[in-house]
Amino acid sequence: MTKFLNFIKKTYKLLLYIIVLLAPIYRLVPSLPILNISIFSLVLVAFFLVTFLNILLFKFEAKRFIISLIFFSALLTSFIYSVLVYKSVNSGMFILLMFLFSILFCPDYLENRDKDNVVLSFFASSWFSGIFSVYYGFLKNGGVKRTGGIIDGSLCIVVLCLILFYEFKNYNKKMINVLRFLSFFSSLIILGFGMSRTRIVIFFLLILLKGMQKVLSFNLLSTINVNKFYIGLFSFVGIIFVCMIFSNQISQLLYVIGTRFDEGTVDLTRNIEINYGLNLFRKNYFLGSGWGDFYYIDQYNSEVLYNNHCFYVAILARGGLLSFLCFCIYILYLLVDSIKEKNRINYILITCVLLLSLANAGLFNYTICLFMFLIILFLKEKTSSQNLQLS
Predict the structure, then answer these.
(1) Does residue 216 sit within a domain?
(2) Domain of residue 245, residue span
(3) How far is residue 356 from each of residues 199, 236, 296, 311, measured CA to CA in Å?
(4) Among 59, 248, 218, 67, which residue's Cα sits nearest to residue 144?
(5) Which residue in 318, 294, 307 sits closest to 76, CA to CA?
(6) Position 65 in a domain
(7) Disulfide-capable partner of 130 in 50, 186, 202, 357 (CB 3.0 to 4.6 Å)?
(8) Cα-atom radius of gyration of the chain, to the nearest Å?
(9) How big is the CA angle at 347 (ends 341 and 352), to the nearest 5 degrees?
């Protein structure tokens, strides 16, 4: 039995690392020709099944389990209602619901080394996504192209949070510092080619927040590390060198990014979509209008798929007040527990989730779901440290 339990644990961790690597680039993951289903979707199904086994085989913290169950039950209720009443369900939303289940019921056996490995998986994901951003944004067709529809730019926000605020416990600091700088450079590339106005604002607000934290720290001068200084200096010189080589392309990229802000942070299409989502909510206040595909007419008189760009409106539209209120209760629970444990990185992660949800799909997005996973994972800080001391 012990061997089987260890196998379940290792399988869960392996699938988790794979999902972190693939989630931001899931649109590029090929499908199996016979089943006509994405390999990424199969990984998510396997992750769901292993999570279900975790619930049957391992103990969970009672309070977190109950609150997670309440939130998921609300989503599941609206989903079943959508199937029975509207006879319409988007297959992608069904897979996403299974993934949300796996995220909410994060097992308690994950320890500090597992946390470090998950964070390193995010770093590695940023490297792959950065390479794909350069390929699809510049090299493939020539000129500068936006990659926001191919690569999820939310990754650059979660990676920056981890670079600036996460402290590794089981790896060599010099190696970690090198990986941090590589990941920061990759995040800049993802951010630049993604051209998301919301993410650009959040990205630089996080850097400003870290800068203020350093300035206000009492022993700032005594905490300067010589190795970090030289790594930072060489990285800065390297970035300047790259900018000099590709100066024309970077100038073009910055110009295109600048034009994205001509209409502010939310354009007319988003406003029309938000109003359409509110109309869907008004059709059924309690359980929403379902999890199917919806289309609206944009300002160009074209039929456009409803893309859940504002999560707060989208969860009201699809799941009604029941799902929205349960989401608020769940976020409040995470925030209160983070405050009790003085878990500072969780303050940042929760704030980023709430900000990203204003103009993005929020939990209807795989990468932002992984934000939630990190928040739940980091909440177990005290438990993990106590277990390590006892062992």
Answers:
(1) yes
(2) 111-259
(3) 7, 28, 23, 9
(4) 248
(5) 318
(6) no
(7) 186
(8) 22
(9) 155
Instruction: Return d(Cα 381, Cα 220) in angstroms, integer.
Output: 26
Total tally of structural domains belonging to the chain: 1
- Concatenating the DSSP letter of every residue in 79-123 gives HHHIIIII--B-HHHHHHHHHHHHHHT--TT--HHHHHHHHHHHH
CA distance readout (Å), 146 to 151, 231, 254 = 10, 31, 12
Cα–Cα distance measured from residue 198 to residue 219, given in angstroms and rounded to the nearest whole number: 34
Cβ-contact 382, 341 below 8 angstroms: yes
Q: Does the residue 127 lie in any domain?
A: yes
CA distance 353 to 375: 10
pLDDT-based confidence at 390, cuts 50/70/90?
A: very low
CA–CA gap between residue 318 and residue 320 (Å, rounded): 6
Tokens coding 131: 């390479």
190 within some domain: yes
For residue 189, give the H/E element and its range. helix 173-194
pLDDT band at 217 (very low <50, low <70, confident <90, very high): low
Whether 186 contacts 158, CB under 8 Å: no
**pLDDT tens readout for residues 361-388:** 778 888 888 888 988 888 865 444 433 3
Distance CA(166)–CA(344), nearest Å, equals 9
Query: 234 to each of 156, 228, 277, 326, how far by Cα in Å?
Result: 22, 10, 49, 48
List CB contacts of 167: < 8 A, sequence separation 6 or more.
Answer: none
Map residue 305 onto helix, strand or coil. Answer: strand
Pair 344, 161: CB distance under 8 Å: no
Distance, CA of 317 to CA of 290 (rounded, Å): 8
The DSSP line for 32-96 is ETTTTEEHHHHHHHHHHHHHHHHHHHS---HHHHHHHHHHHHHHHHHHHHIIIII--B-HHHHHH
Sign of CA dihedral 198, 136, 91, 295: positive
d(CA 83, CA 219) in angstroms, rounded, equals 59
